[in-house]
From TrEMBL:
Gene that produces this protein: mpl
Family: Belongs to the MurCDEF family. Mpl subfamily.
Keyword RNA-binding belongs to the record: no
Source lineage: Bacteria, Pseudomonadati, Pseudomonadota, Betaproteobacteria, Burkholderiales
UniProt-recorded name of the protein: UDP-N-acetylmuramate--L-alanyl-gamma-D-glutamyl-meso-2,6-diaminoheptandioate ligase
PANTHER family in the cross-refs: UDP-N-ACETYLMURAMATE--L-ALANINE LIGASE-RELATED, UDP-N-ACETYLMURAMATE--L-ALANYL-GAMMA-D-GLUTAMYL-MESO-2,6-DIAMINOHEPTANDIOATE LIGASE
Annotated transmembrane regions: none
Amino acid sequence: MHIHILGICGTFMGGLAVLAKEAGHRVTGCDANVYPPMSTQLEAQGIELIQGFGPEQIELNPDLYVIGNVVSRGNPLVEAILNRSLPYVSGPQWMGEHILRDKWVLAVAGTHGKTTTSAMLAWILEDAGYAPGFLIGGVPMNFGISARLSGHADGKSAETAFFVIEADEYDTAFFDKRSKFVHYHAKTAVLNNLEYDHADIFPDLAAIETQFHHLVRTVPGIGRLVVNADEESLRRVVARGCWSEHEGFGHGAGADWTLNEHADGSFDVVFRGETAGRVEWQLTGKHNRANALAAIAAARHVGVPIAQAAQSLARFENVKRRMEVRGVVKDVTVFDDFAHHPTAIATTVGGLRQKVGAATRILAVLEPRSNTMKLGAMKDALPGSLAEADLVFGFGSREALGWSLADALAPLGAKASAYEQIDALVAAIAGAARPGDQIVVMSNGGFGGVHQKILEALAR
């Protein structure tokens, strides 16, 4: 089958393209911005890429158009497809029907931690010999790739084929406003957490809870939900109706999975009151410990012993752009992190503070770039999320955001400043930095290559 993918350079659609190619399909695609690194990754797979959405692309005459959710009505290629009644489908539906069918799907949903938890789970299964396929919204450093069909040498399934997928609550396509994850038909579903996000498509938290309950409705009776027991929103979701086994993780009453933390950062995994394994690793933050509990619980559902899963996580290398060290210059360390929601920002800064202690300075550099942040829905929460940083450098113009970042950061006083030009931002950071500082750069975009620019400025 020849499929032509609209919006191919997005993380999800790019991963789908790789899987389709691996499955034997001819794959072509187009996007508004065809540029590295995604373009080079796809071209290395033999996937032809076209810049833009010109209607002449229908002359490729594919068997099917797979349409990503970044593409909307009015797009010239979409209009040509609709006018000619050509066959099309959404990316998530195509995944569900062509890649995930007949597989044991382990889906990881939640406002935060989907990528990291999916990567942990895939690694636990890989280390246990299960050779899972996966599609993850980042690059797990244990694998070096974001998607693969199978880990078996022949690319085919074993007696039972396992597939780990990051399950996003964002909508499916312009013609399908359900969340992506309802198409995946998970047998094991992790509900990591649930907060208000995606203000561009959801009016309130209740609307997102409804979508999460749609996911719950798709899990079979022989399946299992792994649910954050500390989240009131998820308790409401499960209370709407649950037809599967479910286990809770967290610290609250009723949690099946808890942990005992040690001073060196390791922790014991406790299942229903019994210590069942110990995780010894270098990752920081309570969010990563919660992610680990969820991954271990999900892996247990497919047969991986708890102690073995805990040992596997000692060899987990995290995901690119999750507190990834980009360089050290003159004893100043620069980290790259994907945090783009106030809760994630607070978790990232808090985890680093726990690691380095009170005496070490943390310089937080933030680009509020997500749709939710641009709409200003979370701007009032920014000062609190950055409270543990010693200095805060914000980047974003009033024109781009629609609101003043400087005003939003004003409650932080003199320790916060905002910039509209990358060069001015970099100069301010380099001028303020001193040996021993930890600089954490947080954005869900490329941020104008600011990480390397900071390192070069520090070197000068």
